[in-house]
Design a protein that fits this description.
The chain is built from 21 helices and two strands. It is an all-alpha fold and 430 residues long. 50% of the residues are buried.
Length: 430
């Protein structure tokens, strides 16, 4: 047990350090994120020291009956491909620009419109895609309008991470915890829709109170036209995403696993887009750019952290954690613990760990509370989720200074208030 704990602590420390101080490294012309390398090193050490065997690992990741890590990764990556495809067509940028136009010279109206737009888009896509799309757009707009970008950047970031709770496909942590607990698309939505709305309302009001003086200042921005690259590809992408979500909602009734549905629709979209490009005699720019943006690095990261969790489970650590969390009010116990844990090891490793902890001790309330903690934990510090790490990298490229202290200064109040309100609403439901 001791050696396993030492390697786990080392891996967690290395992961945090990589996110804070060296998020990316360049090897020749290739730029790589360091978070998955840190996780991979930890997994290699566990294999090398015999804390876990390859046979145990492969048996775990490919376990039959229900969801396993490979199925979950397939679900997440294929859903991301559907969303990124729409972004490459120009759909998200177009919506963002239209929202800005509707706001006129009112910062308050723009703030509210942006928050709602980001929240709505996140529900049907994912927080990572929305953060990647909206952040550079907000930076550029605020520079042209000569207004403080912080109210809009925090509104976007907070909304993207809180509204990702609404659907089981909105965040890898939802998929991981929900799938391992056997929750269907419909069951999940029925419980989480009200806590998500409560979370959004609490965050919006708190952020507005923080930035109200800044938002009362006038703004003057030049309108910018954003063009859709291809109306045909847009219709194709929207049709695939819409039908996919509908079928996911009834997957339990049609007896088709969610990962199979999302994979089929991702493959279908790229097949149809390729035929369209050939017919129009156009280069496959949208398709190739989409594939380039697929978050492939999440695969070695999740698999490596799964190896860490398996080793902790093998030596009895997860059983000890489960026993410590048992008793008392499970919604608040699991919700607050997962919220804090997300900011120690990132929310995806936390979810991998809690999927094991929940097996012996957690009821339905504990599962949903852990999902809440994993999503809202991302809003406390920039290392809480991959979205936060990506967000900071984009800000740096756009010359927006965002220190760890600045992040905490503006985010701690909306994050904590939202957590308590959301868990309170959840406790009334489950």
């Amino acid at each position: 047990m001791t050696l396993t704990l030492i390697i786990t602590i080392f891996t967690s420390g290395l992961l945090i350090a990589s996110c804070l101080f060296l998020p990316r490294i360049k090897i020749g012309k290739v730029s790589l994120s360091t978070y998955w390398i840190a996780a991979l090193l930890g997994a290699i050490l566990l294999f090398a020291t015999g804390r876990i065997t390859f046979s145990e690992f492969f048996e775990g990741v490919s376990a039959s009956g229900g969801m396993n890590p490979l199925k979950i990764l397939t679900l997440f990556v294929s859903m991301t491909m559907l969303s990124v495809f729409l972004d490459e067509v120009g759909f998200f940028a177009y919506l963002a620009n239209e929202a800005l136009k509707k706001s006129g010279d009112s910062q308050i109206k723009l703030f509210a419109t942006l928050f709602l737009a980001v929240g709505l888009l996140t529900v049907f896509t994912s927080n990572d895609v929305v953060v990647l799309t909206f952040t550079p757009f907000i930076c550029q707009f605020c520079k042209r309008a000569k207004v403080n970008p912080l109210p809009y950047l925090f509104a976007e970031f907070v909304a993207a991470n809180s509204f990702s709770m609404a659907l089981i496909i909105g965040n890898p942590t939802n998929i991981y915890l929900g799938a391992f607990s056997g929750l269907t698309f419909g069951e999940y939505l029925k419980v989480m829709i009200l806590p998500t709305l409560a979370s959004g309302a609490a965050e919006f009001l708190t952020l507005y109170l923080i930035f109200r003086k800044e938002l009362k200042k006038p703004m003057q921005a030049e309108e910018e036209e954003v063009q859709i690259k291809s109306k045909g590809l847009l219709i194709m992408g929207m049709a695939h995403l819409s039908v996919c979500i509908v079928l996911l909602a009834i997957s339990a009734y049609i007896h088709i696993e969610m990962w199979i549905l999302t994979l089929c629709f991702a493959v279908s979209l790229f097949f149809c887009a390729t035929l369209y490009a050939l017919k129009k005699h156009k280069y496959f720019s949208v398709e190739t750019d989409t594939l380039k943006r697929v978050p492939a690095e999440i695969v070695p990261f999740v698999l490596s952290m799964f190896a860490v969790v398996l080793s902790l489970e093998k030596c009895g650590v997860t059983a000890i954690i489960a026993e410590a969390l048992s008793g008392g009010e499970e919604v608040f116990t699991y919700g607050i613990t997962s919220y804090l844990a997300s900011n120690v090891v990132n929310n995806i490793p936390m979810s991998v760990l809690f999927s094991s902890v929940l097996k012996p001790s957690g009821g339905t309330g504990a599962v949903y509370a852990s999902i809440v903690g994993s999503n809202l934990g991302a809003t406390l510090t920039p290392i809480g989720a991959l979205a936060g790490i990506m967000w900071q990298n984009i800000l740096k490229k756009n010359d927006v200074k965002m220190t760890f202290v600045t992040f905490l200064k503006y985010n701690i109040a909306p994050s904590v208030v939202s957590l308590l309100v959301t868990l309170g609403v959840l406790s009334l439901i489950v």
